[in-house]
Design brief:
With 132 residues, this protein is mainly beta. Helix content is 11%, strand content 45%. The protein contains 2 helices and 12 strands; from the N terminus they run βββαβββββββββα. A 5-stranded antiparallel beta sheet has the order 1-9-6-11-4, with no helix packed on it. The chain is globular. It starts with a strand and ends with a helix. The site of thymidine-5'-diphosphate has 7 residues, from β4 and β5.
Amino acid sequence: MLERRGIPTVADRLGSLSFIEGAVHIPFEIARVYYLHGVPGGAERGGHAHRRLHQAMILVSGSLVLRTHDGTEESELRLGEPTELVLIPPLTWRELRDFRPGTVCLVLASLPYEETDYIRTFEDFLSAVRRR
Ligand code: TYD
């Protein structure tokens, strides 16, 4: 199940500062940080699940629609709030679409990049959920 959490933020007349301390705000050890940016209008990203990877997604700027499936239920969220993060557990099918121009989507991940952790078809994803 996805979980939305607020990111602590200090706001004053000079703007806002949001901060994340891995050991305090993230329920896994952060092994990798990556971010999506420069995504052209109409692009759809994702279209996969991960076997073991935990992720936390933050819309630093802009917005997108995150569509997920956990093997039983589908969910669709528009994310666009830089003071919140969304935790995505392993075995979550995800599709990212409707990127607003200028969107920057930051992802904190529990493992280094590893192609064998990906499940690239929805059928394989459903089989993996059944075997869980
Ligand atoms: P992918 O995870 O498929 O992107 P998306 O789900 O956003 O469409 O990754 C796209 C490409 O980037 C793919 O060739 C793998 C590579 N990649 C890395 O090399 N390191 C990384 O940490 C990530 C996330 C992707």
